[in-house]
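Model it.
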Amino acid sequence: MDLNTIWFLLVGVLITGYAVLDGFDLGVGVLHLFTRGDAERRAHLAAIGPVWDGNEVWLLTGGGALFAAFPPVYATVFSGFYLALVLVLVGLIARAVSLEFRHRVESARWRRAWDWAFGVGSLVPALLFGVAVGNVLRGVPIAADGAYTGTFLGLLNPYALLLGVLGLAMFTMQGAVFLAVKTSGAEAERMRAWASGAWMAFVALFVAAAIATMFAAPHLFQDALTSPLRWALFLLLLGAVVAVPVALRAKAVFGAMIASSAAILATIGLAAAGMFPRLVVSSTDAAYSLTIYNAASTPYTQTVMLVIALIGMPIVIGYTIYIYRVFRGPAAAAY
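Modeled.
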């Protein structure tokens, strides 16, 4: 295993960590649009209040790792997806400001305005993250020099939008299961019902996306039947998909949370395994695609950054575990 492959795995781990952890934050935000009364809204915000900003560290470190290990990919993706990423950034800022400002003024209109900002600010990134992944998997117009030659509207193609809705369903399922863990009584029952509905949407959309991928991105299925890793990820996904409704019916909500997280991990893993060693596929000419080799930084840079990552990652994982242990149990409304 060379440095390029190690960094491919590290970036994948960071992206997966973000999808699992901040995924339920985004899902809670989406569900916030459908709450019943101020007490329920406060409970939702309190559930993620102690952890949401720590969860977003995984996105920052993922972006930093991509920039350090594969700078041409960072440049191409961030320039080509510029408007979409600005919308994501605006949404994430709206979420953060909402959590801090909502309880500052005793006004129902004030709180409701920030509730909408929190909900929409969660829905937009949840949708656009999937759209971005769909375009990367399908392929985007890249010239020989790695420059993006497409348009913003070109990113809103049917396949990418399908994956965007799939991502939205996946995060909503994760958020509903998390709220089922952090609440009790009638609210927990309602969140289990939401989780079941989101699970059904996720399964249906995943099947639709898999069929669409056969036509839009057939390169992802190369050597799929002969790869032990892909079979392992597929079996993990199948087991997780079956386990989620079983755990919900048994009211084993923590088990449902583990199963939902495993489904996210397996979904991202299958996409990454299909892409490897490609990072961004060129729809202009396959030879222009960015891979872990032609888009890599120097071995010296990768080695130095790997040392830093091996020091920093245990710290990030350690304090994440610590925070979740400190704030385990039902959420106390504080918003």
